[in-house]
Amino acid sequence: MIPAPFDYVRPGTVDEAVRALSEAGEDAKILAGGQSLIPVLRLRLAAPSVLIDLGGIPELRRIRDDGDRIAIGAMAPHDDVLRDELVHEHVGLLAKATATVADNQTRHRGTLGGSLAHADPAGDLGGVALALEAEFVIAGPGGTRTVPADEFFVDYFTTALGEDEILTEVRFPKYTGWGSHYEKFNRTAQSWSMVGIAAAVRTEGGTIAEARVGLSNMGTTPLRARGVEEALVGQPATADAVRAAAQRVTEGTAAPSDADAAADYREHLARVLTGRAVLAAAS
Amino acid sequence: MTTTAESTTPELGRSRARKEDARLLTGRTRWTDTIALPGTLHLSVVRSPVAHARITGIDTEEARRLPGVLGVYTVRDLAAEGVSLPCSWSITPDQKTPHHPPLAVDTVRFAGEGVAVVIARDAATARDASELVVPDFEDLPPVLDMEAALAQDATLVHPDFGTNASAHWVFDSEEAGTGESADRLIAAAESDSDSVVIRRRYRQQRLIPAFMEPRSVLVDPTGEQYVIWTSTQVPHFVRIFMALMTGIPEHKLRVIAPDVGGGFGGKLQVTPEEVLCTLAARKLGRPVKWTETRSESMLSGHHGRDQVQHVTLAAKRDGTVTALKVEILADMGAYLVLVGPAIPILGAYLYNSIYKFDAYRLECTNVFTSKTPTDAYRGAGRPEATFAIERTMDELAAELGRDPMDVRRQNWITHEEFPFTTVAGLHYDSGNYEAATAKAVELFDYDGLRREQQQRRDAGDPVQLGIGISTFTEMCGLAPSRWFGEQGYVAGGWERASIRMLPTGKVEVVTGASAHGQGHETAWSQIVADQLGVAFDDVEVLHGDTQIAHKGLDTYGSRSLVVGGIAVVNAAKKVIAKARTVAAHLLEASEDDLEFSGGRFTVRGTDKGMAIGELAFAALQAHNYPEGVEPSLDSSATFDPDAFSYPHGTHLAAMEVDTETGRATLRRYVCVDDVGNAVNPLLVEGQVHGGLAQGIAQALFEEANYDEQGTLVNGTFVDYTLPSAADLPSFTTDRTETPSTTNPLGVKGVGEAGTIASTPAIVNGIIDAVRHLGVTEIEMPCTPQRVWRAIQEAQGRTTQETPIDTHSPGAGLGSIDPNNPQEEEVQ
Amino acid sequence: MAQVRVTVDGVEYVDDVEPRTLLVYYLRERLGKVGTVVGCDTSNCGACTVHLDGRSVKSCAVLAVQVDGCEVTTIEGLARDGELHPVQKAFHECHALQCGFCTPGMILQAIDLLGDNSDPDEQEVREGIEGNLCRCTGYQNIVRAVQSAAQAMKPGAAARVEAPVTVAGD
Predict the structure, then answer these.
(1) Is B321 in the same domain as B286?
(2) If you count Cβ atoms within 10 Å of the first and of the last residue's Cβ in chain B, which end, N or C, has fewer?
(3) What ipTM was reported for this prediction?
(4) Minimal Cα–Cα distance from B280 to chain A, Å?
(5) Do B760 and B662 share a structural domain?
C-alpha cells in the first residue's frame, strides 16, 4: 500500500530540525527510524503534511560516556544500542530489552529515541527507561530542557514533548554490576508484548540491595512497579521471597483487555513474569 | 542433432533439487505483479467497511476529478449487476445459491465487499482516488453467529431465501447400505452399562490462507484474444467461467498463471477482481492491473474452516467403537464461492478415518453469515474430520482409562484387511497403519516421554508434558469424474498431459496441472526421464497457460501427481508405442522383437538399435516412414482416476504446557507418513514440513476474529500471528511406503497430509499435559490465555470470560488499532 | 519531488521521486529491480528485505528519499559472473524454497545473519530470520540451508555447498 502524499525535509542539524518543525506546523511529523511510522502511513492511519527526517544529523546517533551516565543519541539504531560495549557494561537491561524489539531488519533502522517518543505502552523500552530513571533531553525553539522519565510518558502515545520539540538524547544512569533481565511474553516472535517485565537488581551476598522493575503493556503508558521494588529490598534472592514481592506488581496498573489477554490474565501474567524476571536478574 | 543421453539411475525415488529454483533464487521470477505492459492502468477497489448495509448512494464526483483518474465505476456503470461469480458445487439439489455480483448492487453483505472501482494511470493515484469515493450506507444488523443465524427470527443475509441455511446434507450408513444405524447404536449404548457414549463440541476456527504472494490480475484487451495473467491455482477454471460471465467467447480468452506464490486453496477461486479487471479493460481498451494489499487480501480473499462440530461416539467398555454421529454447522460467509459449499463434504466421508465402525451418520448444514466467504484452505474438510475423530478417540481413551494409542490399535483397519470398504463407503486400496505407527513410536521415544510425563506429574512440575497422537488417513487425488458428478460438482476430475518429442532429442511436457510452489517441473521431468529413458535435463515442463496447456483441471486437493502425473505416464506410453512402430520399420524388425530400455529400442539378440531421439528426428524427416502412419511421436493422454488416493500416517507431538502462564510449546514432533512411492523424497519432505507448519498454526496461533459489528479485527500480518521460524521447531519426518494399487506409479497425494494430521496431534498433546488438572477441552487456537483459563476453570476458580471478539490493541501495530485509529504521536 | 542518488547492485542512479515513494516501489517500478517483492503492508513479512549500506532492512519501511547517498544490494546483485552466492546455492540444494516468493528476502536476511555470526546454531538461525515469513516450507529447510551455507562460507571451505538433507527412504 502507498502512503498519502507528504513533503519531506531532511535537516542537517538539530537547530535546523527545530526550525523546520516550527515552520511546518501541527501536521508535521518527525521521522526517526520510521519503523512504526511508515507502516502507519502505508495503512493511511495518519496523513502528515510534512515529514522531518532526523536521519541527516550524525550527532544524534552517538552513544557516549557522560560521567555517571551513558548518553544515547535519539537516532541511535536499536542494533547499535544492543551491541554497544558501554551500554552492555553499564545499562545491561537496556541492551537485553532492545534485543527483543521487533526483528533484525527493524532493529537496523528503528531507533531508541523514535521508539520512546512513539510511547506505545506495549513497546519494550519505555518500562526500561522508567525503571532505570533515564533522563530525556529535548530540544525546542527556546533551547534544550531535560525531563525525567517519570514525567516523560503522559498517556497513550503521548509524551512531554511539545509540538515544536524534538527528543535528542536519552541519558541512563550507570547500573554497573547490576544483574538484569527482560521477560517478554508475546503470542509469536513477531508480536508485541502482551506483558513485558524489565528487571534490574543489585545483590549483596544473596540479598537484594536495590531493585528496579518496569512494565510494558500494563496501562496507558509504560509503568514502573515501585511496590515490587520496595518489597524486594532486603529480601533474599530466593524464589519464595521474590514471588511474594512480585504480587505487588499490579499496584497502580490499569491492564488493558484485548483478544490476546483480558485484564485479569494480564495481571496474573505480570505477577508470574515479574517473579521470573527478578530471579533471572538476580542469578 | 544430439542424441539423447541414456540415463542409468532411475529417477523415481531420487531426491533431486528443483529445476524451477534457478529463477526464484535470482529474483527473475515472473509474478503477475511483475509483468508490465505499456499503457497499463491500475484498478483499486473501494470496499465496504461495514458488514451488512443497504447502499443508499455512492458519491464518486471528487474521485473522478482527481488528475490521472480514468474512471470510477459502480457495478451498474459496468453493466455487471447480472453477472454472478461462480459457485461450481451444489451439494444438494435444493441448495440455495445466491446471486453474487462482482461488486455489491444495493446491499453489502460482508465488510470488505467491493462497492466501486477506480481506474487510474498508476496504483498510487488509484489508491488516492478510492479514498475519495464516499458510499452512503444504511446499516443493517450483521449475522455473525451460525447458531443464532438459524433461529426463527434471525436477520437474513439473503432475505429472498427465507432462511440462512444454504443446504442440509446427510450421510447415513444404514441408508447407504454401508453399515448400521448410528442413531440406533448410540441409543442402545446409552442404555447399556457396558457401553460409553462420548459427546463433544469442537470449533474449527476461521482461518486465512495467507499465501505469501498477494493476488494480482493483469488483463490485456488489445490483441486478438484477451490475455489474463492472474495469480491463480486454476487458470482453466478462470477461462471457462470468464467466458460464461462476460460473454467474451472462450476462444477469445487466454489465461496465464505465471509464477504463482503459494495458494493453499486460497487461489482456488474465480475472483471479483478478475472479472472487474476484464470488464474495465474491455470498457477502456487498455491493459488493467490490480494487485491487492495484504490487508485487502486478508479481508476479501476467501477464508477457510469455520465450522462447529457436534460429535457423538458410542463404544463398548472394552474399547470397541460401534457408532459415530457428527453434526456440522459450516459458515459459508455471505456468498457461496467456487467450491465453498463442498468443503465440509470433502471431509464427510472421512470422520471414521482409519477405523472400523459399525455405523456412521453425518449431517451438515451450510449457513450464511455476514462474513467473508469461506472456501478451500489446505486440507479442505479433511483437517476438520481428522481433528474431530482424533480428538474424540483421545477422549474415549481417557474415559476408559486406557492409553490412547492402544484404543486406536484396537479399532483401526489392520494391514491384512486391505482393500477395505469403510462404513462411509470408501474403498481404501492400501495402507499399513501398524508399520507407520511402530516407526513413529520408536523415533519419538513414546515410552520414554510417557515416563517423563509421569515424573513431572508426580513432582508437580509447573511445566507439564503431554503426548498428542494423530493417526490419520485422508482421501485425495480429487477426483474420479463420476464421483464429482454424483456429488453435484460441475467439473470433471481428470487431468491431461501431452508430450512433444523434439527432433533434437529434447522433450516438452505439457501438463494441465498448474503449479504454485509444488515442484511439478522437477517431478514431471523425473517421471518422463524414466518413462522415455531421456535425461532429466532434456525435459522441459510447460504449464499454466491455456494457450499451451489448453486442457486441464488445475491444482488442488493433492491431485497433481496422482492424477496429472499419471496422465504424463500414459502420454509417455503412447509415445513409446508410436516410436516402436517407427523403430520396427527402420530396423526392419518385428515390433515384437524390439526391446525398449534406457531410451533405446534394440532388436532382441542383436546390437541393432535406435534411440528414441533418433526416432523423433526420423519423424521430422518422414522420408522413410511406415505406410499409413502419421509422422509424429507426439502424444497426449487424459487420465480420469477411478479411485481416490489414501495416504496415511502417524503423527506424534510432545507438548510442554507452562501451567503458570498457559503457554503451550511444541517440544518434539515426529511424523511417519505413508504416501506410497515417492517420486522425489526431497519434495515430499518439503510438502510435509509446510503442511505441518500450517496445521500446527491452526492449533496454536491463527484465527480470523470478528467483532460484534462484523469487522475483521486482525486482518494484517501484525495481528494474525502467522508463525515465524522462531515459533516452530524442526520436525522429524520419515516415511513408510505402501504403494497405491490404483495407479501405475504406486503414488499417493502428499500436499495436504501434514496439515490434515498435525492439528489434532497438537491439541491432544496440550490436553494430555493438563488432563490430570481436570481439563478436557480447549478451543483453538490454544493461546496462552485459553490454556490458562481452562486450567483455572478446571480447578474451580472462576475467571473473566475470554473476550475473543474485541479489537486488539497491543498486538498489531503495537497499541494502534487499525480498525479504530486514533490520533497518535509517532516518530 | 526530491532527488535521490543511489547505487543499486553496483550501478548508480539519480532520480526525482515523490517523497512518499517507498524504497521497494522505487526499486521495482523505476529501476526494474522486480526481484524484490512486496508481501504485506505492515513490514512483517520481510519479503522486501534488501541490504542498505551493508545491513538488512525491509525496503517497504524505508522511503526512497532516505537512501540518498547510500548503497543498496538486492537479490539481483548477489550472483557474481553467473556464479550463485553460497546462500543461494544452499537454498537450492537444501530445497529451502517452494513458491519462492519469500526467497529473495529470506536470502538477503540470511546473508546479513551470517555476516554477524558465521556459525549460528539452529536457534540462532531461527531468531535471526524471525522477521521473514514463509508459508510453504515450515522453515525447516531454510534453517538447514543457512547452516549449510555457513559451513560453505567458512574460510578455506570449498565453494560448494553440501546438501545436509536427510530424506526418509533415500
Answers:
(1) no
(2) N
(3) 0.97
(4) 21
(5) yes
